[in-house]
Amino acid sequence: MRPVWKEKPAPAYQAIKAVVLGGFALAIVIPILVVVSTSLASDQDIIDAGGYVLWPSHPTLKAYETLFSGGLMGRAILVSVFVTLVGTAIALAVTIALAYATSRPVLFGRPVLLMVLFTLLFAPGIIPMFLVVKQLGLLDSLWSLILPGVLGAFNFVVLRTFFMNVPGELLESARIDGAGDFMILRRIVMPLSKAVIAVVGLFYAVGFWNAFFNALLYLNDTSKWPVQVILRTYVLQGKSLSADQLGVEPLPQPQSLQMAVVVVALVPIAMVYPFLQRHFTKGVITGAVKG
Amino acid sequence: MISRRRFLQVSGAAVVAGSTLAGCGDGGTASGGAKASGELKLPTYRPFAGLRPDLAGAETGLEPGFLQFPADAVASVKAPPLKNAVTALTETFATPPPPMGSNPMWQALNQALGAELKLTIGTDPGYPEKFATLLAGDSLPDLMWLPPNQGIPNIGPMLEAKFQDLTKYLSGDAVLEYPNLAALKPASWRTAVVNGKIWGAPIPSTPFGQVMMGNPRTWAKVGGLQSTSADEFFAKCKELSNGTNYALEPAIINMLHMFGEWFGAPNGWRVNADRSLTHLYETDNYRAAVEYAAKLWAAKVFYPDLNLADATPKTVNGQIAAQVTVGPRATADFRALDPTLFVDTLIPFGHDGKAKPVYDMGYGTVGFTPFKKTDEGRIRELLALMDYLSAPFGTKEYLQKNFGVEGQQYQLDAKKNPVLTKAGTQQAPGLVSALTIMNSPESVIFNPAFPDDTRKIHQTEQELLKFAMRNPTAGTYSDTSSKVGPKLTAAFRDTIVDIVTGRQQIGAYDEALKRWKSGGGDKMRDEFAAVLPASVPVS
To answer: How far is CA B430 from CA A246, B39, B92, B248, in A?
Structure first.
């Protein structure tokens, strides 16, 4: 008898699986389709559908034109890209360095240091954070979006645990060959941990890309607002113009504007994801069963 | 002039900021300060004389109507108000504006003001947090808009500790030095008084409160939206609801507000013959309205998705027949979607066809904008700025603030009404919203594209005023109410929504009421009753 996993599944079972999985897939695809469709919908489509649109019958790019016409959105994208790239790079450098240092048993005073780092798991609260950022002179600077977030305790723990599993013999042999700590980290530990570094990097990048609350609190100059703050204002504030302020050209309906912002905010991260997905699965699985 | 929809929505929101201002004081002024609030001499009221509206307004609250923008706008301010730059924290309820550096409309305003007006623009939600952090970090701008309904706690002690008392510059005839501020009504000024002192210029919105509006094309099938009794309205709703179309939007609390008016529930508090107060929730009238709403819900006339954010498109296309809007001027929201549609406004009626209904007027302002503590010269400069930004509808300053510069941000249409140009639609909305929320003149009715709407709204307002009731506590101050009021209201509302939607029995009402009373409701009553002005009539 063949083992059970080599049996061909019954067609009925296959069909059930297809329906269930198809259902899940639709549950994910339809909301995204609604977002994209509504962003492309004309005013008439929105009235006909009574709000959000499943398929625009008179597609138009008006919402996107409006969005990018003021110059605010283009700048916001640059800000978000800068914060995400620079933030992720710095965050990875800091986290890797710290995780490596604390993963080696030789470090002096390690338990105390670990206790200190443990406190980082708890959020400090809005006002203490604000005071720190203010005293560092970071208010109204893009660094206020980057520096407070460069060390995520969770990411640190994940990386450190991974580094501790790198066999000590490897490191010893490297040391015998005359490698210093930097060389070991760069040539041995990091190449072995590519998957988990990619995952942590993605966590950081998504975090920086999505951050809006810090921007609300620390930035007074609207020209420094990242995409997410603009997104929020568009999604949460309804009407663009009041009744007594007519324009020569009416603005698109708020629903299509809102969804256009959602698309703009989604696209960059959605584009990066497929390239990192490979590492993502590997990074998570290696934690469980190492082959 | 501002998008009040969002603003009024937040009035029901729970407190977000918690006690983040605790560092500013212990809230110790309590009712002593509240008592003083009742005794202050308000600024002298002197309406702006330079303009005559097409439809007259009245001090009762009736808004003046303008069929077109006044030709040859007059100036209401003699000289540019500023010599030095001013910083201000405000909030935008529209799409964010391009920053000052790339916003010619903003730059033109600065030029007209005489110096830079640097706005820090907050958003909603998040405003109370922004407010709290600036306060705690001692990084106060010159001006900070203080909303009355976003749950900013400890207002009395905070104002005393950090902001400027403006009483001697504004009380009585002193205000006449700033004619546009003198044109703000006493009812508006009452909302800028805390602890018996004036802390800023009030920001009038509209004196009217929520109304129910319906698509006349939908309601034509059942003889129109206007009804004479709750039973008739129920029957009409039932006829209009068929499983795909529904009579009412699912905003339960707002709908209950409307039903309460038909059942004679008071506006916030009832003033009894012995001058004691009874809260809305304690009245049998409101309880009856809750039971009526539950009956409507059981009959499936409410649109079933409680999370529906904006019913307007559905009202326009007929999926929903009626919704609650911020006030009688909101007809324009529907015109914006469908220019051929002028929605009907329901005039409240007695629930049994006989009793006199009530129409609840609104709070009237969106709070006030206090000044950071400073010297007299600076205070006068900032007051002059307030005066400029409060310039009445139809003045030069109003045009500058709301429409910018002719030929750049706006042009005149065939009827000589200002119309934003393409550049104007980019530069104006977020900026105008941010300016309007921190300073406004008294409101007017103005629908440039549909002057007839202005006439009809003016008519509707007069109908509504026949049943008008003001919240007797509006403009007075209770420390308990500003501390725990929003939280108590939110908790009570959760229960009544459960009751209406059938998740709880009506018995839960009494339990929730008990919690409301012991949680601070009784204390609020005492504090409000202690400062109830003698001018407030028995209801």
So the answer is: 15, 38, 6, 32
Q: Does B216 lie in the same domain as B201?
A: no
Contact B425 A241 (CB under 8 A): yes
Cα three-residue angle A111-A112-A116, rounded to 5 degrees = 115
Answer whether B310 sits within 8 Å of A51, measured CB to CB: yes
Residue contact A50–B319, C-beta within 8 A: yes
- Interface touch A241/B426, C-beta < 8 Å: no
A38 touches chain B (CB under 8 A): no
**Using one digit for the tens of pLDDT, what is the confidence trace for B393-419?**
999 999 999 999 999 999 998 888 999
Are B313 and A249 an interchain contact pair (Cβ–Cβ within 8 Å)?
A: no
Collect all residues of chain A within an 8 Å Cβ-Cβ radius of residue B411. Answer: 248
3-state secondary structure B111-156: HHHCCCEEEEEECCCCHHHHHHHHHHCCCCCCEECECCCCCCCCHH
A245 CB neighbours in chain B (<8 A) are 1, 402-403, 420, 428-429, 432
Is B59 domain-assigned? no
Tell me the pLDDT tens digit for each residue of B100-140: 988 999 999 999 999 999 999 887 778 888 898 888 888 89
Contact status, residue B191 vs residue B148, Cβ threshold 8 Å: yes
pLDDT digits (tens, 9 = 90+) for A68-92: 876 778 888 899 999 999 999 999 9
> Per the CB < 8 Å rule, is B92 touching A238?
no
Determine whether the interchain pair A223/B448 forms a contact, defined as Cβ–Cβ distance below 8 Å: no
Query: Which pair of tokens denotes residue B375?
Result: 């010297």
Q: Does residue B202 sit in the same domain as residue B237?
A: no
Q: Is B263 exposed, middle or buried (0-12, 13-18, 19+ CB in 10 A)?
A: buried
Q: For B1, which residue in chain A has the nearest alpha carbon? A: A242
Q: Taking the model in full, what pTM does it have?
A: 0.83
Where is B198: in which H helix or E strand? strand B197-198
Give the residue on A whose Cα is nearest the Cα of B451.
Answer: A244
Q: For residue A69, which residues of chain B lie inside 8 Å, CB to CB?
A: 426
Tally Cβ neighbours within 10 Å of residue A31. 11
Chain B residue nearest residue A244, CA to CA: B447
Indicate if B216 and B191 belong to the same structural domain: no
| pLDDT of A265 above 80 | yes
A250 touches chain B (CB under 8 A): yes
Nearest to A222 among B121, B320, B413 (CB): B121
Domains present along chain A, CATH in parentheses? 1-60 (no CATH), 62-286 (1.10.3720.10)
* DSSP H or E segment with residue B367: strand B365-368
Tell me: do B42 and B84 sit in the same domain. yes
Q: How confident is the model over A165-193, as a mean pLDDT?
A: 89
Closest CA to B403 of B414, B387, B385, B419: B419
Rounded Cα–Cα distance for residues B384 and B361 (Å): 31
Q: Which of B312, B421, B427 should be substituted to probe chain A, the one whose Cβ sees the most A Cβ atoms within 10 Å?
A: B312
Tell whether A145 is within 8 A of chain B (Cβ). no
CATH of the domain at B320: 3.40.190.10
